[in-house]
Design goal:
With 741 residues, the chain is an alpha+beta fold. The chain has four domains: 38-158, Alpha-Beta Complex (Topoisomerase II, domain 5); 244-320, Gyrase A, domain 2; 360-461, Topoisomerase, domain 3 (Orthogonal Bundle); 496-740, 6 Propeller (Neuraminidase), CATH 2.120.10.90. The chain has 19 helices and 35 strands. It has a four-stranded antiparallel sheet with strand order 10-11-13-12, covered by helices on one side. Strands 19-17-18-22 form a four-stranded antiparallel sheet, with no helix packed on it. Strand 32 and strand 33 (705-709) form a beta hairpin. The termini are far apart. The relative contact order is 0.07.
Length: 741
């Protein structure tokens, strides 16, 4: 039995394995380092390209060559992920200051992933990338073994500018993420210089230089100054960007889109609203983008009288014309730990790195100057004693120790003398050595002076920052303009105002036909279904539905299916109680009055707006006594109307509408007296109620018979609310309905 293994509880093993994985993802994959603003894969790509000699002045080389070097020498991971990281650094719409100059198809703003394979594209470094690499061989950074220990690679790149802010980055690690927006080089450099001049500068003073992020797009940043300040002070928050537009011959021309927003995708969003008839004021869309105008989207309104600002405000609120970007300034600090930092922390810590980098660069140069001076000192001794030196070299078997002993020189000096070529023994060389000595002595004095003075060191860093800002900096691309929040337009304003006839079937299916003169009798129904009710309205108005339990519901009408179909079930839009049935439709203006009553003779008047409910379950409107039903509601015009109520047994009562209470919901007051025994047995109940003008004519329908009343006939049946009413003539003891004209 083998005993060369270790036993661990599964809990401990899993915990350690996951923790190791988490730390790897956080430190070696997802988060950038504050020093050079790069993730390991980006750093290795840039370094590998510099090793291949792919500077901004070199010829382009196939991207596959670069990826091969990166994977084979420094980054043993997938080629696809490596190439995608390389593509991102080459896209001028993704990086504010691209690190790679690409030739070929590197993707487009509409489809950033549409780049060609690495065997087709070519690349080299940009001039800006030299700010990361130019001091690499000057003792400025630590080096570490690559994955197989055969090569060395830099742990960090000696960035001359705070690239972590200039290009920003996004990344998702385990338990944390980073979203650093890009910034303007000149603004960030000015803030660094402010801190060099006055290390005690507050974050408020830095805001005079760094106004906000600066994305590689001309769209506007519309976040308020307070929101931007809070974001920089806390290290987290969000930034809003809004497209820019102008008016041209009555058309709306969109000239700049928010960061990473696709024009094609945006056109799809607007077109979808047009197809859904939610943008009736827009007639057409055109994409006129080309090489000269990378973004030119034309929105053509139906009329020149429309409120362009209101329409654009709606589009800002409902499409990607306005977009919010999360900001989380999370990065790996100089201490090797990830942390969310505020603006001042980032700049102070980067300046600490930069100061140490410059110090190491100067010290490295000083060491080289001292070493060269040491050699020159030995060479000068040799020239002054050239004959004796030649004699020792010719006669001695081991001349180096003899030279060291005779002239008191070091091993390095003796080696330099022995490596001299004969051509350098001329008299002229002595003068060159003395001249070089003088130059190096001056350089040595300047280096030692700078290294010994923090003030001079800061001055040097400041000059280099100013020089780089002048060379690589540019004007702000994303203007910061504080604007009011975008507001979607009211639904009614987005719908064409057309007449509709809404039809509901007995099984609760609903549909709509254009116009008010539609013949509902011409409709077809599903098997076992038939006509129940219809209401006339407009597409901008909702339709209200009453069910058998007295609940009221409302739904939009502009999106109802066509009357040419069987419609759709209302249960798909609404959520009524079990076993309840939809019984009546109502429509009109919110201020319209309706008479609502039960067949037990109780009722009240209510405005339509009280029936409106956004809740799918509706709202309880009429309190129904046990066993009672809702009578078809009757529209009312004013308190001078007359209310006519007819019962099953042929009784009719007419009274003033002023006697009916106004309620938002409830049971209401008694309209007509019906004996309780008749109600309980079903012998009598209210069958119809109608509101008519005081001088109108009342029509009573019983089967195929009709009775028209006016003047004295109406007075005969008139009385006070809650009376029993008078009996209608023979033949009208079974009333089917009431109407007026």
């Amino acid at each position: 039995m083998q005993d060369n293994f270790e036993q661990l509880p599964l809990k401990n093993f899993a915990e350690k394995a996951y923790l190791d994985y988490s730390m790897y993802v956080i430190l070696d994959r997802a988060l950038p380092n504050i020093a050079d603003g790069l993730k390991p894969v980006q750093r290795r790509i840039v370094y590998a390209m510099s090793e291949l000699g792919l500077t901004a002045l070199a010829k382009y080389k196939k991207s596959a060559r670069t990826v091969g070097d990166v994977l084979g020498k420094y980054h043993p991971h997938g080629d696809t992920a490596c190439y995608e990281a390389m593509v991102l650094m080459a896209q001028d719409f993704s990086y504010r200051y691209p690190l790679i100059d690409g030739q070929g198809n590197w993707g487009s703003l509409d489809d950033p992933k549409s780049f060609a394979a690495m065997r087709y594209t070519e690349s080299r470094l940009t001039a800006y990338a030299q700010t990361l690499l130019s001091e690499l061989g000057q003792g400025t950074v630590e080096w570490t073994d690559n994955f197989d220990g055969t090569l060395k690679e830099p742990e960090l790149l000696p960035a001359r500018l705070p690239n972590v802010l200039l290009n920003g980055t996004t990344g998702i690690a385990v338990g944390m993420a980073t979203d650093i927006p890009p910034h303007n080089l000149r603004e960030v450099a000015a803030a660094c210089i402010q801190l060099l001049d006055d290390p005690d500068s507050s974050i408020e003073q830095l805001f005079t230089h760094v106004k906000g992020p600066d994305f590689p797009t001309d769209a506007e940043i519309v976040s308020s100054a307070d929101d931007l300040r809070k974001m920089y002070m806390s290290g987290g928050g969000s930034v809003k960007m809004r497209a820019r537009y102008e008016q041209e011959d009555g058309n709306i021309v969109i000239t700049a889109l928010p960061y990473q927003v696709s024009g094609a995708r945006l056109m799809e969003q607007i077109a979808a609203q047009m197809l859904a008839k939610k943008l009736p004021m827009i007639e057409d869309l055109r994409d006129e983008s080309d090489h000269e105008n990378p973004t030119r989207l034309v929105v053509i309104p139906k009329s020149k009288r429309i409120d362009v600002d209101a329409v654009m405000s709606h589009l800002f609120a409902t499409t990607d014309l306005e977009k919010s970007y999360r900001v989380n300034l999370n990065m790996i600090g100089l201490d090797g730990r990830p942390k969310v930092k505020d603006l001042r922390e980032i700049l102070v810590e980067w300046l600490t790195f930069r100061t140490e980098t410059v110090r190491r660069r100067l010290q490295h140069r000083l060491d080289k100057v001292l070493a060269r001076l040491h050699i020159l000192e030995g060479l000068l001794i040799a020239y002054l004693n050239i004959d004796e030196v030649i004699a020792i070299i010719r006669t001695e078997e081991h001349p180096k120790p003899v030279l060291m002993a005779r002239f008191g020189i070091t091993d390095v000096q003796a080696e330099a003398i022995l490596e001299l070529k004969l051509r350098y023994l001329a008299k002229l060389e002595e003068m060159k050595i003395r001249g070089e000595q003088d130059e190096l002595q001056q350089e040595r004095a300047a280096l030692e002076k700078t290294l010994g003075s923090p003030r001079l060191l800061n001055r040097l860093i400041r000059k280099e920052l100013e020089r780089d800002a002048e060379k690589y900096g540019d004007d702000r691309r994303s203007p910061i303009v504080e604007r009011e929040a975008a507001q979607p337009m009211e639904t009614a304003a987005l719908i064409s105002n057309e007449p509709l006839t809404v039809v509901m079937s007995q099984k609760g299916w609903i549909r709509a036909a254009k116009g008010h003169d539609f013949d509902v009798d011409s409709l077809n129904y599903r098997s076992g279904d038939g006509f129940l009710d219809a209401a006339r309205c407009r597409t901008t108005q909702p339709v209200y539905i009453l069910d058998s339990t007295g609940r009221a519901y409302s739904t939009t009408t502009h999106d109802l299916p066509s009357a040419r179909t069987h419609g759709e079930p209302l249960t798909g839009r609404l959520n009524p109680p079990p076993r309840s049935l939809f019984v009546h439709l109502l429509a009109g203006n919110p201020e319209d009055w309706y008479l609502l009553c039960s067949n037990y003779g109780y009722g009240f008047r209510v405005q339509l707006k009280e029936l409106f409910s956004k809740n799918k379950a509706g709202k309880q409107l009429i309190s129904l006594p046990d066993g009672s039903k809702v009578v078809k509601p009757a529209p009312m015009r004013s308190e001078t109307d007359l209310i006519a109520v007819a019962t099953l047994q042929g009784r009719l009562l007419i009274f003033s509408a002023a006697e009916i209470p106004e309620l938002a919901k409830g049971k209401g007051n008694k309209l007509i007296q019906i004996p309780s025994a008749d109600l309980a047995s079903g012998k009598d109940a209210v069958v119809a109620a109608v509101a008519m003008p005081a001088h109108g004519q009342l029509k009573v329908t019983s089967g195929k018979r009709q009775l028209t009343m006016k003047g004295q006939d109406i007075e005969h049946y008139s009385g006070s609310r809650a009376q029993r009413g008078s009996v209608l003539p023979r033949g009208f003891q079974r009333v089917d309905g009431l109407d007026w004209e």
